[in-house]
Amino acid sequence: MGRGGVRFGGRGGPERKPTLPLKESLKQLAHLLWPFIRPRLGAIILGTLCLLVGLALGKVVPLISAWLVDNVLTPAVKGGSDAPEIGVVYRQVGVAAAAMLGCALLSALVSGVHNWVVRSASASFVRDLRMAVYRHLQLLSLHFFESRPSGDVVSRVAGDVGGLEEVITFVGDRLFNDALNLLVTTGILFWLEWRLALVALIPVPLLLLMMRWFSTTIRPVYRATRDRYGEVHAKLQDNISGIRVIKAFHADEQEVSAVGGMVNRLFETQVRAIRLSSVAWPLMGFLHGFGHLLVISVGAFLIVRPGSTFTVGALFAFTAFVMQLYHPIGALFHTYNHLLQCLASGERVNEIMNAVPEVADASDAYELPDAVGQVAFDGVNFRYTPEVPVLKGVSFVAQPGEVVALVGRSGAGKTTIINLIARFYDPEAGRITVDGHDLQSITQASLRSQIAVVPQDAFLFNGSVSENIRYARPEASEEEVRAAARAAYAAEFIEALPDGYESLIGERGVKLSGGQRQRLAIARALLADRKILILDEATSMVDSHAEAEIQQALAGLMRGRTSFVIAHRLSTVVHADQILVVDEGTIVERGTHAELIERSGLYNSLCREQIRSA
Questions:
Q1: Which of 11, 159, 441, 496 is the most buried (most CB within 10 A)?
Q2: How many helices (H) and strands (E) does the chain have?
Q3: Which of the 8 DSSP states describes residue 504?
Q4: Which helix (H) or strand (E) holds 391?
Q5: Cβ contacts of residue 484 below 8 Å, gap of 6+?
Q6: How open is the CA angle 214-215-216, to the nearest 5 degrees?
Q7: Closest alpha carbon to 378 in 143, 141, 142, 587
Q8: ∠ CA 284-287-290 to the nearest 5 degrees?
Q9: What pLDDT digit, counting tens, does each position of 371-405 carry?
Q10: Which residue, 491, 497, 430, 504, is CA-closest to 465?
Q11: Among residues 583, 563, 578, which one has the least CA distance to residue 408?
């Protein structure tokens, strides 16, 4: 019985969520990031202090320039009895130049310290956040991964978490520094000439209105861009994993076209963001230039006005400070732009961090003692989706050391039963126990530490043969690894590999045959030495010669263990202690092969079908 569909959005991507209101998105981002920012507050404060020192030094230089123009250069150019001697002029120019050089050197020093402190903090921030997201992913139930493309999940952990680094490098100290710079510079401008300061502030309301328009318009575009990235990553991962099928069906151009369509949709969203930025940034530059022109025009009028005390040096300093006024406004706009991008990434990361495991340990869950191996189902009902029941009233008892075979047509519910044994899901009704312990009363880790699985499609990691065999027991000795390989009839082909047990087998074991991969999976299960064993069609993907060897290996593996075997080839389950025949989510027959073959039931029918097809 099928699991029911997974919801996907248009054009093959995951269902796209609407953009949150700005206030709510900021609140969620702060809640997500604060635990990772708090340990780095010291570094952020030090970086901010460096920026404040740099800010103060930046204010000193225009004031020195104004003093130099008004008190040294202007009198020297005018001449007359009040003109300073040329030696005094040189000396005063030298002192002013030395002071400005000292400011520049000190500014460079504090800038370097700031860069080192903040960049180090942001790198460790991303490291810890990425590990926290990955740790949370490990806690989530299988349904989470089965309901979304793996490439999209990878995109969130890699791309979106990396994008949040800018919360510290741009949004954190820069936001505070630019806001303070704006306030201090405004104060200095009013101190120098309040009327001219009012003129300088004329473009500011227009800039603020533009920022508001930009925020409202571009936020959904940034979120759509991040979602499109996720879709592209998901498709690429899917295609790379299925490259053999693509080539076998000569579907190269078909997949190029599909990926091209996704890449083009990503490009279209990026172009929308670029178009909006291309309007905003030049308009901001124009307003800056317009404000500067106003200041120079009105400032020149104030200088030449009879009786004015406003000097050329003051205008020189004022224009420098006006640039320092408009620069933080532009920087705030730039920071705000980065913040909006961070919000888009933050929403996608939050969707992972807010995901709640469907299967979770109870608050009073305890460790399962060393298992004897009795497994019991008592009236178990289960469904993947509300409208489709998968198991209905399933009850059976597997005694310690028994081999229990699950047979039935595809979709009958066999795999669901073993998924429930490993507690990948919880039943909606009924009870499952191991040695009398209800699975929902014990910890998942202690349960799974007593279960070994040999799947139909043996998954191997991109590493060496030895690393894959000792995956469940990393501390196992080399001799234990070799003993497990011998017991799994894998030692001969392993020793024939170029580097033996240290040979790299490629992603998913691509350098090995199906039978070799299966034997490594059996060796891995043997080394794990668990009391409960699950074999999910472990010989269905190999030829008859390999199957004979694998059957011998499996016989050794099952000895002394409670084993659950799913097999479509009924010849592999004839020696089972108990055969459960599953049909449409219920156990319709049970018994040994000899008992069931004598009945005119589903098992007998399945056997006859296989004999005819053979």
A1: 159
A2: 23, 10
A3: B
A4: strand 388-398
A5: 469, 476, 523, 524, 526, 527
A6: 95
A7: 587
A8: 150
A9: 899 999 999 999 988 888 999 999 999 999 999 99
A10: 504
A11: 583
